[in-house]
Amino acid sequence: MFEALTAQPADKILSLMAAYRDDPRDDKIDLGVGVYKNALGETPVMRAVKAAEQMLWETETTKSYTGLAGDVGYHNAMRELVLGTAAAPDQVAAAATPGGTGAIRQALELIKMASPSATVWLSAPTWPNHPSIIRYLGMPMAEYRYFDATTRGVDFGGMLTDLDAAKPGDVVLLHGCCHNPTGANLTASQWQEVAYLLKAKQLIPFVDIAYQGFGDGLDADAFGPRHLAKTQPEMLIAASCSKNFGIYRERAGVLMAVSQDPSKTALTQGTLAHLNRQNYSFPPDHGARLVTLVLGDDALRADWLEELDGIRTGMLALRQNLADALRKRTNSDRFDFLAQHRGMFSRLGATEAQVAQMRENHGVYMVSDSRMNIAGLNAQSVPVLADAIVAAGV
Ligand code: PLP
Ligand code: TYF
Question: Which PROSITE patterns does the UniProt entry name for this protein (predicted)?
């Protein structure tokens, strides 16, 4: 049987990690995989998470199964974190999932079950796992324009024009904040315009939010999903705790299905539990429980917020430093977009050949589409990167 398997394409982000590891140069710079790193290049366990782990170790009395959809305390904590008061508890069905990716997968399976002919619209470009999973599930898929290669901002006119061609019942996947891979994001008023179009065309928003707190702050980053929850009849949200709690390997995510009509919630909740059962029975609990402890304890929550804000403002400072360094070297403002982008990533707009040149000549590792992880920089590497960018003729 196994001989019938065919080799699958590698994940270009993850293969870059291996190439970086194998590079013997000690001045190499890793701007590849989307993992937060401090100025020392470490991805530490957050203080509040460490404290919650100790609390859990001391107080946890059983590791028996949770519910099929995970723990209700976690659903509530995540609903409040992502949606605030934009949706009442009885409007939201929720299930814990293995990471944000698990939530995306379960959301797509729900869409396929409920509306097999719905096309899922993706931003061009998007996180490569979106089209990969959709293709694997055999679902119809289309792209809407999103990134403007000239301004390195959002091609908002193109986005609205393309979404206008979607048919009623189609699903539109939107990055909640901190767009991966471009770093270019919708403004609050653009979210309002998108919401207006979605409602008028009867399109269903599906928000993937994996970086809440990494852009302009926890509440500002959730403007989009909250506005949609208030204005749309139905929506799906896949939220990840990997980045903002720094618990990548614990695999904590949540899928939320929001409906203006609370009478639909029980059926949707049952479906989410069913989908978990089909795929892995019970979802992982450890990371979810840490998140619940941190969010539910005033002192831990305050400490988490402080550390998260330090991460966020540190990345903003690196963005500004890089934009300034490039202003100086090029005598122009054409890299100012780096300071306007938000989140971990910016798409630089370099060609594949320029990306390869920066890797070979300067040991700078970015994804071949010229996505850079800003958190991979520090005070020493910013000028090195700026030199590399100029030398490559970007
Ligand atoms: N969605 C986007 C856009 C991402 O970049 C990520 C990356 O980590 C995820 C979802 C999900 O991450 P995880 O499955 O590690 O929680
Ligand atoms: O985009 C990134 O770098 C992160 C991490 O298959 C990641 O989202 C990358 C690839 C992948 C899973 C996670």
Answer: AA_TRANSFER_CLASS_1
